[in-house]
Amino acid sequence: MALFTRFFLICSLLLPGTVDFAQTPSVYDQHDAFAPLFYPAFGDAVRAADGTPGPAYWQNRADYKVDASLDTAQHAITGSVIITYTNNSPQDLSFVWLQLDQNIYNNASRGIAATPFGGGRWANRNAFNGGYTISSVSLVQNGQVQPVKYEVTDTRMQIKPGKIIHAKGGVISFKIAWSFVVPEYGTDRTGRLKTKNGWIYEVAQWYPRMCVYDNVVGWNTLPYLGQGEFYLEYGDINYNITLPSSLIVVGSGELLNPQEVLTSTQIKRWNAAKTSDKTVMLRTEAEVTDPASRPSGKANLTWKFKCINTRDVAWGASTAFVWDAARMNLPGGKKALAMSAYPVESAQDTAWKRSTEYVKGAIEFYSSYLYPFSYPTATNVAGIVAGMEYPGIVFCGVNAKKGGLWGVTSHEFGHNWFPMIVGSNERKYPWMDEGFNTFINTLAEKAFNNGEYKNNRGRNAQTLGRPFFGEGTEAILNIPDVTQPANLGTVAYRKPGFGLQLLRENVLGPDRFDSAFSYYVHKWAFKHPTPWDFFHCMENSSGETMDWFWRGWFINNWKLDMAVTGVSYVQNDSSKGSVITIACLEKLPMPVTVEVKETNGKTGRVTLPVEIWQHGSVWKFGYNSTSALEKVTIDPDNTLPDINSKNNSWPQE
Questions:
Q1: Which helix (H) or strand (E) holds 442?
Q2: What is the mean pLDDT of residues 457-473?
Q3: In which region does residue 105 sit, left (phi positive, over 0), alpha (psi from -120 to 50) or beta (all else)?
Q4: Cα–Cα separations (whole angstroms), residue 20 to 82, 129, 150, 386, 424
Q5: Which one in 94, 343, 370, 394 has a CA-CA gap of 20 to 30 Å to 434?
């Protein structure tokens, strides 16, 4: 049974008989941890001091109309895109910047030059030499097409239209014609896989896309080097894909012409899936090699899609797809369709036959916890890409199964909240999507199917001290291309994700954290927050100043080491109460829980706020014991990634 505790006037009560350990010298300094100046700028009308978009917040808009064809003999995509760009900024623009991410696969790219000799996940493979061929760049005005000046620099293109794009609503349209060969391995984000029934194409970064112009740095033009992902404007995207009629296409957004590209049987099954919580087969394993599973009479078909209020689109295509679907039930009575497309080689009950169940479970949870899923379909594609996310569609490894398939599916679809809905800058701040997503994944795993995979990511926090703070580790607040590849999983995923867990479980409590986190998501849905916006938003919503945590956990790589350093008794009499001494030996403070066991069999706990460390590295508190103490433990539930657990208990074992 827990005991109530009270504080004592320590200095007047301590008598001989104090038992203290020899302490490791503390490097903690409360003046650093709680320094009064933290935020680099004051709030303004664009980004308010409370972390929300201000009354003058603006962001530009990019709408796309893409027409493309796939040559399956050459694995080549040829297309054109009309980009309608709206300048909502207060600044006139005389030029624009676009992203040409396919150019990373050209052997002259900066990404290739910056790849370590031994290769790696982002390296080009099989001596592939690709990238865009730009056929033309034109200004579209009053129905007329006029060539304009442009310059390609690695993975970026600058267009100078010869006219001003006026502030506060000026609109301009460009038409770009392009082509490229789909790499077999495309930095684990795009590519193609050969199966016994044909190639599986997973197509992404496949059309020129606008760079973001914002009030933080102006044009965001960091080159694509592989490890840093994407930062994109929102808009509506209409795209048409023409290819041989034997292929099935799945893509971001809504399929506009199912009657033209599906059989009558598939349309009937599609409609059945819309009302079914159980997976419905749209194309069975046996039908993959059956010509009757595709419409007859035409050599090629054009699949037409539309995705609303999105930052990107991607698609998959194959003759080899087994295809299934089920209904997703979202907040407010909204419905959407979960789908999976995979080869017969992956069609096992322990593998991709459960994929749609996983898609449905993950998205329904995230929609309830944070914000409703915003696309009409959610499709999981099995292929060469191990795990990559796009709006309404993800690419996951063809060999994934059991908890591994659940984990990658849940993670990649978690990205539909970070960064698809909350549009942070992935190329600078990967932790704002990967880390936040890793955090919500842990909650989904506890919720899915009565906790079937609840231990997927579970680890004793005290085992995390070395990977978080050991030799060679780096701070979270670094751009991904600067982070060493061996550290990316820690500083972009695990450590920021665990940081949110600490805030939820140790600092704010689940209710206050969940409320503040949801507030942040709703305020920045389909907008572009910075790290400072997130910090401000969480503080203002929760009512807690947490600069000590942002400073130590995210900006610096401060270590955590809490210790129990001594026990004494009031008037040298254990029946009159105890005085317990604890210490913060490293630079990061934290609220702490201390468990006290007495020799009379009683056990109690004391929870102390982070403010105790505002007084220095040592804190003494009174405990209302009635017998000698048997054991005192700080962080008894092992929730902190403490670098030295040996000093967490008195007496030391």
A1: helix 434-447
A2: 88
A3: alpha
A4: 73, 67, 72, 53, 49
A5: 343
Which structure tokens are listed for 254?
């809504």
Residue 302 pLDDT > 50, yes or no?
A: yes
Task: Check residue 553 and report its DSSP letter.
Answer: I
pLDDT tens-digit series, residues 528-538? 999 999 999 99
Pairwise CA distance, residues 229 & 252, whole Å: 18
Residues 6+ apart with CB under 8 A from 8: 570, 577, 579, 621, 622
Summarised one tens digit per residue, pLDDT across range 277-287 is 999 999 999 99
Distance, in Å, from the CA atom of 168 to the CA atom of 165, rounded to the nearest integer, reads 9
The Cα 504–Cα 445 span in angstroms is 16
605 by Cβ neighbours in 10 Å (0-12 / 13-18 / 19+) ranks as middle
85 within 8 A of 60, measured Cβ to Cβ: yes
Q: Report percent pLDDT > 90 for the chain.
A: 92
CA distance 529 to 429: 11
Provide the Cα torsion 500, 502, 507, 510; round to 10°.
Answer: 70
| pLDDT at res. 460 | 82
Q: Determine if the peptide bond prior to 258 is cis (ω within 30°).
A: no
Region 553-564: what's the mean pLDDT?
A: 98
Burial class (CB in 10 A: 0-12, 13-18, 19+), 49: middle
Nearest one of 199, 239, 189 to 79, comparing CA atoms: 239
3-state secondary structure of 34: coil
Average pLDDT, the chain: 94
* Calculated CA dihedral for residues 342, 345, 350, 355, nearest 10 degrees: 0
Question: 435 pLDDT exceeds 50?
Answer: yes
CA 465 to chain centre: 23
How far the first Cα of the chain sits from its last, in Å, is 25
> Which residue in this structure is represented by tokens 């906790």?
451
Predicted pLDDT at 356: 98
pLDDT of residue 102: 97
Token duo for residue 589: 């403070």
What pLDDT does 118 receive?
A: 78
| 206 close to 190: Cβ distance less than 8 angstroms | yes
| Phi/psi at 332 (5° precision) | 75, 15
Indicate the pairing of strand 149-153 with strand 156-160: antiparallel
In contact, 396 and 380? CB cutoff 8 Å? yes
